[in-house]
Amino acid sequence: MPLLSVLWGIALLAVIATTAMDATGTSRKLADNGLYAAEADAIAEAAIVRAAIGLSDPTPGTGWRADGRPRQFELRRWRAVVRIQDELGRIDLNFADQDLLFGLLRSAGIEPQKATVLALAILEWRMTPVPGVSASGQPQRRLFQSVNEVLLVPGMSPDLFARIEPALTVYSQRPTFDPQLAPAEALLALPGASRDQVAQTLAHRAQVALRADAAPSLKGRAYSLAIEATDGSHKRVYRATIRFTDDPAKPYWLLDFQVASRS
Length: 263
Description:
Blueprint: H1 2-56, E1 71-75, E2 78-86, E3 91-92, H2 98-107, H3 112-127, E4 129-133, E5 139-141, H4 158-164, E6 168-169, H5 184-187, H6 195-210, E7 222-230, E8 235-247, E9 250-262
């Protein structure tokens, strides 16, 4: 019996020690993950600042352009890759008419009848009255506050949204988009556009961009940023949107910032 008691005591101490070691290991992992996340967030914020500086730089060869090409820089053990898209090249969910929305949905492979119904559903969503009045004294209408909100429209599926998302914005505040700044998904929404024509347009635009010698006027312009931050072992993908101002003390506003994925 005394020997059995001793063995039970040793076993109990072993369980306690193992539990303590597991707790310590878990706490260390949580601390490491927290540090990694904080560093990745800081790199993403630095990438936003770097992109703003690059877009403001008119020097040929060093200025950044919103052409979707990857730009990268390194900071300590981290590397950030940034892709910039001018929001004037996207279709604004709050201002596009039925024909443009229909063209976008058709380019994503939706049959005509369903595309018509869904385009009308988007228009109906943003025209629904809500309490309050606008700055002009008119009845307030429900508008999309983010592109993701279109998933709430009846008939919109996650798969379809993934196909049209690159063409969408809520920041241009225009009924049309600039084809010279548009991604392929938006160009395909134009009447009669084919994939071959869009590919030729993008190739030609890339050559023109290489000869660009001045940055555009940035006041009021909105740009979306796709940022990948990696340290070789981990990777985080961020999405951000900025709008430039004419205030030297606050050159841009951060309109959106979110973690798109992590690994």
